[in-house]
Design brief:
By secondary structure, the chain is of the alpha/beta class. It has helices at 2-11, 13-25, 34-46, 108-128, 130-138, 163-169, 222-236, 275-296, 315-327, 335-345, 352-358, 364-367, 393-397, 419-426, 433-449, 451-464, and strands spanning 50-53, 62-68, 73-79, 148-155, 178-185, 189-191, 197-206, 245-252, 263-272, 299-308, 402-408. Bound molecules: zinc ion. The site of zinc ion has 4 residues, from loops. It comes from Halolamina salifodinae.
Length: 484
Amino acid sequence: MKQRLFADVDDQAERMDELALDLWEHPELGLHEERSSGRLRETLAEAGFEIERGVGGMPTAFVARYGAGDGPTIGILGEFDALPGLSQAVSTEREPIEAGAPGHGCGHNLFGTAGVGAAIAVARALDRGDVDERRSSGSQTQSDEATGEVRFYGCPAEETLVGKTFMARDGVFDDLDAAVTWHPSDHTAPQRGSSLALDSLSLRFEGESAHAAASPESGRSALDAVQLLNTGVEYMREHVPEEVRVHYNVQEGGSAPNVVPAEASVWYFVRAPTREGVERVTAWLREIADGAATMTRTEVSERYYTGCHRLVSNGVICDTFRENMAELDEIEFDEEERELAAELQETLPEGAIAESRSEFEPPHDDAAADAALYGTPMDAFDEGESGGGSTDVGEVSQLTPTAQFRATTWALGTPAHSWQAVVANGDFGRTALPYVAKLLAGSVFDLLTDEERLAAAHEEFEREVEGYENPLPDGTEPPFELTQ
Ligand SMILES: [Zn+2]
């Protein structure tokens, strides 16, 4: 029965490839992914999905639903935003297609596309009655008419950690029984590790402009306030838990040295392992900002952009991914693709390949030694660990059992958000699409049909997650201004 499901994915291979390339050729920044979101929606609508657009107050966010009955509802999360300044041709050297333009450095052109392919394959299995058939052969407790629902979530603006948080506030994940997703990478394995919770906010100071040399006594510098705030944060840094990450960049800092800057602002990310931890540090940050305003006789205001929780990766779903990996043939890269990957590896920073390999468990650490593209599936190797970054998948993982896997689309050692990743995402990364879509579809199929598996995922979820509270203060609007 799984073979029919996988054959349905193969039927869509060409279409997924065309979609992924089209998104790569038209990269769009977060919350402005009109074309990319539109292409994915149109593909799902043609396959009979019911589309709800504009969820969470974001025109490019959508939910596509297919199915009916009392069976479980399983979601596939997809992303499609690009990164600023990463425009890059398929080349073995840094070569922007258009200087300063965005590019797909995180592989979200593949990310959303594979999820769409998987969702459509599961929809066909629902049509054929395969879901009910497999379910009744496994258990007698379900009714004949159980069926089920598959959903694809079109999640915009992952790079600014915006999309899923605003969608979660809108309640679109509330009635899900589980969610699955994946991410392009230089290896293939379920991801068991966590990520950091985050607050993203801007602090803006307003002072008085004046001639900086002729009448400085009339001026009040907003830039001074930004500098004092940043200095204060550097002193705070010593007295927060080690895992906390705080980083910033100055958004506005005046226009000319002979004008006292009347407006200045700075954008902060605060990260910590828990929401409470983030909130404690953000509260301290706000106090330092007040102090900086007092010292400079300026006024401070805040724009809270977004926040998210840490990722809680569900072990039962990760095991489901691993079982499905065992059912599938490895991703088949051809000679030309391996050669291009090897050439790209030569441009990576020294030590990058060894660093990547050092994370792998034996025998994969050695087996990957001479591989430009290493697609052999591995067990999760990051259980109990947390990366220093954040993902808004964390938000969904607080609402329903959620897990993600990584699949090989990049040359071994390639960092995310690099031009080498852009090259891969426009070229050999696309070769992984059928594999990824099968892995997603097979796992969704298992969760739809295996009652005990889903119950076990829920038991684990209840143990790991406490009550959910959305991080957005009342009335927060999506930060369209961040990516204009
Ligand atoms: Zn990404």
